[in-house]
Every structure is written in C-alpha cells, then in structure tokens.
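Researcher: Go.
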Amino acid sequence: MGIFDRFVKNKTIAPNVDVAASYAPFNLQAATGGLFFTNQSATREQAMSVPALARARNIICSTIASLPIETYNHFTKQHLRPARVLMQPDPRIAGSATYAWLCEDLLFTGYAYAQVLDSYSDSDGARVRAFTRVAPNRVSYQLNSNQTEILFYRVDGAEVPLFGQNALIVFSGLDEGVLNRAGRTIKAALELEKAAEMYAKEPLPTMVLKSNGTNLTPERITRLLESWKASRATRSTAFLNADVELQALGFDPKSLQMNEARQYLATEICRAVGIPASFVSAEMTSMTYSNMIAERKALIDFSLRPLLTVLEQRLSQSDFVPNGVEVRFDMDDFLRGSALERAQVYEILNRIGAMSVEQIQEEEDLIR
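Model: Structure:
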C-alpha cells in the first residue's frame, strides 16, 4: 500500500456471482421419494418389456424429438435462427436422437443429464457449443452437510466442473419419474406378460401324470415326461395306460381373466404416464378424424407439455441463448388440420388482411 492510498477511501467491490457455477439446489422430497420407492421401483429394462409402456414411451419421446425447434425474441416476438447446438446438440448424431433419450430420462427417472462437449465465450459469458446426453445411472452427486444443495457432480465416479468444458447440464423433471411412482404397476404388468408367455408355451393348465401302480424310478419318470411332451407337440389326442392317470391343476387363461387383467394394467400404465389410453390401444374406441385432433391436443396438454416445459426453459437459459431469447418447440405441424380446414382459415385471414397470399404460400410450402 502506497503512502497516498491512506487518503483514498477504499471502494467496496460487489461480488460477481456466477449462477452457472453456483451450488445446485437439491430437492429433499425427491430423495425421500427415492428411499420410499426403493423396493418397488422398476428398471428401464422391465419398463420397456411391457408393450403398453414401451409404446407410450415411443409416442411421447419420439413425438417431442421430431418437433422443430424455434427461437424468438421475447419482447419483439421476432423469430431468430436457432443455434446449431439446439438443432444438433451432439455433432456425432442427429438431434432427434439426443432429445428422444433426454425425454426418456425425464419420463422414467425425473432427471436428465447432458455433458458439455464444447463451449465458447462471448460478451454475455460462456455459451454451450455442443453437448451429449449422459445416462442417469452414470451420474452421482455430493451434498452439503444440510442435504439441501449439491456441491458437485460425478460422472462415472469422476468429479466434473460446475461450468465450462465437461460440466453437466441438468434437466430437472417435475416429478420422481414413472419408474419410481409406478414401479409396482410395471412389475405387475411384467409378471402378467411372463404368465402370458408361459400359457403360450403351455396352453393347457398344469398337468400331472399320476402313476397308479408301482413307484417309478427318476429315469423312467423323465423318459415318460419327455415322451408326453413330444407327443403333444405332434398331436392333441393322447393315450394312457391303466396305471397312468392325467390330472389338471390350476386354471386356464380364460378362468384367470388374463385378457381383462392385461387391459386393466395397460390402462393403469397410461394413467401413470399421462397419455390418453387410446394412443396405446388400451381402450376400444372408434377414432374419427374430428376427434383425432382433440386427442392430439390432449396428448400435448397432459403428456408432452411437462417434458416440453422442462426442455424449453432449460434451453432458454443464458448458457445457451442470449438474454431475452426464448426456445420453443413448434407444434403447428403436429396440430395441423385438414386441407379444407386450413383453406377456410387462410381465406378468413386473407380477407381481414391478417395474411397475404405470399404468406399463405410460404406457410403451405408452395413457394419454390
């Protein structure tokens, strides 16, 4: 300190808080739910073995992955050209693949993770140039002493920085995930699928061959059962000697109401996922074009919207786009009406001066 510095007032320097590098909040309720659901949570392999849930996953995740991404100015509503990282996050694969798996992670586990592959700096700070999806089972974290904040993350056991190269991009879901809150339903459906497979292999109730004569040796019992199975594979009519009796145990699939049980569990899975049952054929309804549009709107409102909101809000943060720019998935094509309906709307909009002929041609891709 110089001699003249004693006569100069010290200036208080305001701390520069980097939000991206701050500790991440930790939802203790999610941790409690994870402990509570430990014994009844299902795995991804079990979930994808259930046809109704596999179809629901493919509809939800594939639909979101196929939607175009748009960016626009929040204040002027001007549409902007999306950055390449939004359309193709990982340069090695198509963008739809990355978003499909991120949506699955949010749907199944309640969290989705991505790791920064490349970044650059501009006037507003660091920007993500490329990122790749990281499976949730590869990610762990270290909490503070109060169990309220995440101090740092680990990927495959190695600590990663909070920002910059190799940092994690966290997409926080709106619940604990289907595998946790509907684990018992998934396991019940899986057991029912196993029962259906068993009855497909053995269509009759459990059969017992009882010897009314002398006790048979294990070798003769084995040869008898193999001969019985081989004969039933070639003909349905059987012949038994007087010393062998056939007894049937258990129930057939009709008595067990297996079809009704599978239908019920398929409907329960649709409730857990939030998808209309008609999309996975869990209910038998007649589908016309007029109510198909309503069904698609219901799909967006109750199935796609929670995942879309998480993705859009995270991609709209300052490490992806400048302040004032928002990221949205374009659902116009998904909710596109028939040609007659669009023509009627265009005719009204053109008549009141809201759309020109050139704008209508551009909307319908008629300009070459």
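Model: Residues 274 and 301 are 9 Å apart (CA to CA).
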